[in-house]
Design goal:
The protein is α+β, with helices and mostly antiparallel strands. The protein has helices at residues 86-91, 107-116, 130-139, 145-161, 172-178, and strands at 3-6, 18-22, 31-41, 44-51, 72-84, 95-98, 119-124. It has a single domain, classed as endopeptidase fold (from Nostoc punctiforme), CATH 3.90.1720.10.
Length: 179
């Protein structure tokens, strides 16, 4: 299990760090995850992350339905690019994950794994999102804690709605389309 630190200064970030910040979608309830490659000056960093290319940091949900009932779209890509983390640092919402060192790849292997995936990819909110990618680069495990929480919420929400015979507008499929 990993914990996280809030980053208050760009100098506290290091090569191969797994970081996240609130997305613009879902009112910041979801986090966008990335791997830090290198500082480029001030609060500008080269990162590798899964993105939709539309500036929403991998948080979009348009496209054909995947196994999860949510977006599964090839317009998503793993990219290496410069990203200004200054606003997230100033707001105190940039997280650095502290994975158990026994299970972490060395920095050069984190970069090797991340760069091996650069290019188009199949995004799926529950099965392959930016957190799955970043955790895999760092620890070899494709996991997403926020996807697990969302699945649990949808499962408990749909179970609670199953006995609601008077309101058919509240289904798990509709709940999924909101995310």
């Amino acid at each position: 299990m990993s914990t996280h630190d809030i980053i208050h200064c760009a100098k506290d970030l290091h090569a191969a760090d797994h970081v996240s910040w609130p997305t613009l979608s879902m009112s910041g309830m979801l986090e966008h995850h990335a791997i830090v490659c290198a500082p480029k000056g001030d609060n500008l960093f080269k990162i590798i992350h899964l993105t939709d290319g539309g500036g929403s940091s991998g948080s979009g949900s348009s496209g054909s339905s995947g196994s999860s009932g949510l977006s599964k779209n090839s317009k998503y890509s793993i990219v290496e690019e410069e990203h200004d983390l200054g606003e997230n640092i100033r707001k105190g919402n940039l997280r650095r994950y502290n994975h158990d060192p026994k299970y972490c790849n060395e920095p050069e292997n984190v970069f090797k794994k991340a760069r091996s995936k650069i290019g188009p990819c199949q995004f799926d909110l529950f099965e392959y999102n930016c957190e799955h990618f970043a955790r895999w680069c760092k620890t070899n495990k494709e996991e997403s804690k926020q996807a697990d929480v969302a699945k649990a919420m949808l499962t408990s929400g749909s179970a609670g709605n199953s006995g609601n015979s008077g309101n058919s507008s509240s289904s798990s499929a509709e709940s999924c389309s909101i995310m």
